[in-house]
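Blinded run. Sample ID left blank on purpose so nobody reads anything into the name before looking at the predicted structure. Input follows.
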Amino acid sequence: MAPLINTTLQRYSLFKCQARGIIYNVIGPVNSGAMQYETKPTYVHPSKSMTFVDMRALGKISSDDLPRMDDICRGNQPPIRQMCDGELLYPDVLLRRCQEWTKETIELLKEADVLV
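Blinded prediction complete.
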């Protein structure tokens, strides 16, 4: 079973293929509040979405490691509020959005030998 990176209009998420699938991602705006971690089942493949852009296989995760995957995803703090009225709250710090969270989480999954 391979997790895939799903990019939809600058929106990144991890998708775990099974008979159906599970999306692991962070949602919410960085300009009016903090993002939140979310998992949700999907009954239709993400490529069927009208906003779908691209998907790439990243490796394999054992079904036995799904709880560890969720723990690792939850352990990577979602991005905090970083903007207010279009102005950066922390101008000296790079923006951290779902794309950055997803890339960080992929590395954490690899380091833990969950994603191989």
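Unblinding after everyone has recorded impressions. DSSP finds two helices and seven strands in the chain.
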